[in-house]
């Protein structure tokens, strides 16, 4: 995908977010007692939300200009510091060319597109001896979670991801959210999936109990 195509995809994501905010506004207005509001009240609500949308769109464009939305390889230690200074939140994958790191790459590539508020990058540990020693990087893959230029937390190997390379993107997403390096609106996708499965299981059990009652009659 060329640069223009990537930019178009990311701009579409911004528009999607803006549309979602507008729909939320309509929901809020729908829940209000419209009979007790006049046109000025409704106009003020819309104007306030419009300003929020403009502010959000400007923030998204700023993130895109910094390289957010893409998972990029940092070629040098010097650029690592530039990235850490430029973005408020950064996930940096210290890697080598092996299977576990490629597994992590796959999931981070997906999350980079889903969480524009955070910069996702990777740097080859063996070519970054100063950083690796300073940050005490021993196990690969290791994710350094950077907030406001300081390393706030680490995800080391797969120990916190079930101890297997078969973890899901949603599980990694939840782990990153736990450190508040990414922003969640509500439940994670993994939590929603588990809730749905639990709900379906309850429905099945209730249906089974109903069948038993009918047969006893």
From TrEMBL:
Using the UniProt annotation, give all residue ranges assigned to the region (Disordered): 195-217
Q: Which residues form the signal peptide?
A: none
The protein's matches in Pfam families, at most eight in alphabetical order, are given as: Thioredoxin
Q: Thioredoxin domain: from which residue to which, for each copy?
A: 80-160
Query: Which spans does this entry mark as compositional bias, Polar residues?
Result: 200-210
Which CDD domains does the UniProt record give? Phd_like_TxnDC9
User: What is the top-level taxon of the source organism?
Assistant: Eukaryota
Q: Which SUPFAM superfamilies match?
A: Thioredoxin-like (SSF52833)
Which InterPro entries does the record match to this protein?
Thioredoxin-like_sf, Thioredoxin_domain
The cross-references to PANTHER family, in alphabetical order and at most eight, read: THIOREDOXIN DOMAIN-CONTAINING PROTEIN 9 (PTHR21148)
Q: What is this protein called?
A: Thioredoxin domain-containing protein
Source species of the chain: Picea sitchensis
